[in-house]
């Protein structure tokens, strides 16, 4: 059995959910986890105006209340000319996967989330993404330079693989993030969509494991 997590690092509910998913993988260390990036606003070209920024703040407040994770609202509101394009940050996840495989990929995913939401960093900038990702990879024992990561992130093959992730998310019928599926016996089963606590996730996992034991 394997869990498939479909999300986007610049989705606020995915940010809050990351804490619970990390807790689940710690509680169930043999759990196989595959990450598919969904591209919630991949390819967006419109500059986020004041109204667009204000629209997101209530969502952030709800995520913060449930998860306890921090948000740097001031940096977000102060950023000028920001295009909320999530393709670059999704591609950074794919680049990390190309470099190091699935092991430790959730840590990279969450580091990118933390960079955007908690530190107010520009996660549409490839150099910023490289800096965040190499630190997260290094913490998991994978040594790669920022320049090496940036080259992988910039490569045509990485861009193509990112688009394949987006297509796979659609093919799996995922309409919102975060969503989790269970792959078992060659089939996909709905596991959970939206925010959930680690206790809820562990209980659901136990029920599904019982069905396929």
From TrEMBL:
Residues 8-205 form the DSBA-like thioredoxin domain. It comes from the Bacteria. Signal peptide: none annotated. InterPro entries: DSBA-like_thioredoxin_dom, Thioredoxin-like_sf. PANTHER family: DSBA FAMILY PROTEIN, GLUTATHIONE S-TRANSFERASE KAPPA. This is DsbA family protein. The lineage of its organism: Bacteria, Pseudomonadati, Pseudomonadota, Betaproteobacteria, Burkholderiales.
